[in-house]
Amino acid sequence: MISITVQSSEGTVLAYAEHPEEAWLSVDRAYLPGDVIRITGSSRLRVRMDQALPAGEVFLPSGVMTWPVPAGEHRLAYAPGTFEAPRHIIFAAAVPDSGLHRIRNLALNPADLRGDTDFYPHCTANVETRNEACFCARNVIDGLRLNSFHGEWPFQSWGIGAREDAWCELDFGRPVIAEKMALTLRADFPHDAYWTAGHVVLSDGTDLSFSLRKTADRQWIDLGGRTVSRLRLERLVKSDDPSAFPALRQWEVFGREQA
């Protein structure tokens, strides 16, 4: 049984829905700080946390997804007014077994949040420019590749605050087979610099170096069909552009679930 529960900061149930296959829930109020959405019923779900957000697949190791509704400064990474509308629609459905083994972007998770989560995929980093939501790691798996500007939605990105030791880690929460990945750099030139090279370290210990160009297009790196649970971007080499601001707009990893 798939269930969706919305609770206030005091624990009051504001809305609830359940269904054996797919649950739909309408929440008839603007969200307030401390509101939480909880979804249960399967370890693999397709969810849409709001009508203003894209849908995506998530993996729930414990069968529970806890989603504090973004509030305050956190909302700058989302479309204006997303959580302030008087009505919201949430959707959750179990992913059929037949859909698990197709090649797809395993990194995609528009529902990812900053900080610790109990669902995956999940992105973290050792630095986020000024600790601002529009430059946080979760932005690189939100499914958007608009990269001709910088700052608030829809141009959010992972910014490194000019740190030379910046890294970003993508955790799938389980082993998957990774065929290739695509990096889309932020390309607000000349405000932005770019990286000319870097490394991706896989959870199996493989260390792959790659080169990058000054382009707004996706740049592809072969991962060799390795079985991994995490990837880390690190040792990123900045170009000699006068700008101090290279940034990553989107990180896609194409592959499939283990058999």
String of helices and strands = EEEEEEEEEEEEEEEE
Largest sheet, strands/sense/barrel: 8 strands, antiparallel
Shape field: globular
Helix content: under 10%
List keywords for this structure.
259 residues, mainly beta, 8-stranded antiparallel sheet, 16 strands, 44% strand
What does this structure look like?
It contains no helices and 16 strands. With 259 residues, it is mainly beta. The strands form three sheets. Strands 9, 10, 11, 12, 13, 14, 15 and 16 form an eight-stranded antiparallel β-sheet that branches. Strands 2-1-4-7 form a four-stranded antiparallel β-sheet, with no helix packed on it. Strands 3-8-5-6 form a four-stranded antiparallel β-sheet, with no helix packed on it. The model has no long low-confidence stretch (mean pLDDT 96).
List the helices and strands and how they pair.
Elements: E1 2-7, E2 13-19, E3 22-27, E4 36-40, E5 44-48, E6 56-59, E7 64-68, E8 88-94, E9 104-105, E10 122-125, E11 158-159, E12 168-185, E13 195-202, E14 207-211, E15 219-238, E16 247-257
Antiparallel strand pairs: 1-2, 1-4, 3-8, 4-7, 5-6, 5-8, 9-16, 10-12, 11-16, 12-15, 12-16, 13-14, 13-15
What's the short story on this structure?
With 259 residues, the chain is mainly beta. It is built from no helices and 16 strands.
